[in-house]
Structure prediction request, 150 residues.
Amino acid sequence: MLAKLKQFLTSHSEAVSPEEKSRQLNLAAISLLLEVVFADETLSDDEAKLLPQLLTKTLSLTQVEAEELIAEAKKIQGDAISLYEFTKEINDQFDVEQKQKLILAMWKLAYADGQLCQYEDQIIRRTSELLYLKHSELIQMRNIAIESQT
Prediction:
């Protein structure tokens, strides 16, 4: 049964248009950002304002595209079983610099409400590991996010 599911997913992913593939990649990235936002089980006003801004900068989306994808990603993210579902696609498509930008955006969201929850920290660290980033890159992105807060 698992082999059939894998075969279906593989054949389905090959038939996807470049635009749809880009959309899926953006949804994966947004879903990871939402994992951070909802890690402390609250969505602060600061986080809600910052998320679309980060998407326009990090993923080069328009404000309207960002808001549409956030709404769609909220549905997908709620059904997710693990972070791997999102990081696999990102690993296939993002270069190191893009991965670092994503982790930086995650740190900025985590610090947006003025405090870092342990669950936010764990999600970002786990995501960084799944994206095959070095620990030094993770810390560098965290420090940049902290410095941008002041």
Observations:
- The radius of gyration is 15 Å.
- The helical segments are 2-14, 18-37, 45-58, 63-79, 84-93, 96-111, 118-130, 135-149.
